[in-house]
Amino acid sequence: MDLKFDREHIWHPYTSMNNPLKVYPVKSADGVRIKLDDGRELIDGMSSWWATVHGYNHPKLNEAVNNQLNDMSHIMFGGFTHKPAIDLAKKLIDITPSDLQKIFYCDSGSVAVEVAMKMALQYCFSIGETKRKKFVTVRSGYHGDTFHAMSVCDPVTGMHEIFTGILPEYIFVDAPQIAYSEQWDYADFKQMFETIKANKDEIAAVIIEPIVQGAGGMRFYHPNYLKELRKTCDEFGIILILDEIATGFGRTGEFFACMHANVQPDIMCIGKALTGGYMSFAACLANEKISQGISDGKPGNFMHGPTFMGNPLACSVANASLDLLMSYDWRKSVKNIESIMTQELISAKEFENVDSVRILGAIGVIQMKSEVDMAKIQNDFVEHGIWVRPFGKLVYIMPAFIINDADLRELCRSLLTVVQMN
Ligand SMILES: *Cc1c(COP(=O)(O)O)cnc(C)c1O
User: Are 96 and 229 in contact (CB under 8 A)?
Assistant: First the structure.
């Protein structure tokens, strides 16, 4: 592979063109094994950023793509519809919270967040609440890299200072402090309540990742926070947007993380594992209140329509991925991953360089006391035969649900060996 060309011309995520971190050439991937060009095999701990829940190169997903390819890989969604899109909408409406009955397909998670925010604003304008233009969110959140999504990411890790004056300025509240399994105390929600109350007439929506804050800090918060948030949004007529892009499709132990709290959002974003990690695809689901509000008002049309909206290949593989998820006891698999990760990773709490360890569903997080040296630790992981990509102080894994116990234990043990040396 022409790594020199890659190094000189191709941007990789979150890197400088002058001094990029090393990239490892991949030849292929199968199940939870990533095969490098030089013949080495790595056990995958990342699921390609939450996405490949069934592992790589799955025969059922390959078959779905191949079959669809023979009919059509793409057709514009303006003026046309097709079976893969309809089948998928039926399934998604069935498995998501029952209020969500209208679906908007889009091409990536960030776009789904843009669509959700646009829906919230257009809803407010349509029903005549034209003063409602603000969003409220919590710190340590992550919602994507496009501009409006970025405006509700954590201001520090989202590097808001670079774009001051360009990014819309929204309202931030401290991140929830009480962890998932700790004792609930309403005091944790108080700042959110007071903030909403103080700005009640200007707020269009609250946007938040339910239960698990992903790329903004890998934090697991208490379900009662979400319950209180739903209650408060209802009290003040404010829309609740839940970003389930990372948490959806079983990752946290429930099909969607909002189900830990039994909360129904007005608008929900999904993505990442939607296609089993096969291709970029996402969706934004809304309840009747939102869709009616927008459609009854002026202009009545929802003004968004990506070129690749409802892409048939993506819909087909998403259908196959959902069928696969329904065909076995994924909940048991996630529980099993959770209990093995708990057994294997908990001892890292005693390491001198480790601050804390937390596990929820198929997510295992080791928070270090200081930021890791990315170049060194990444190399150490590869040398130990595993693929883990930390950021800042966070070293975390979220393996595919199909990982077997032996591979998972090996992944965890090698992880601890490397963590201890860094
Ligand atoms: C990854 C992610 C996004 C952005 O999705 P992309 O497909 O990368 O644009 C948005 N929200 C959350 C919670 C995510 O984890």
Answer: no
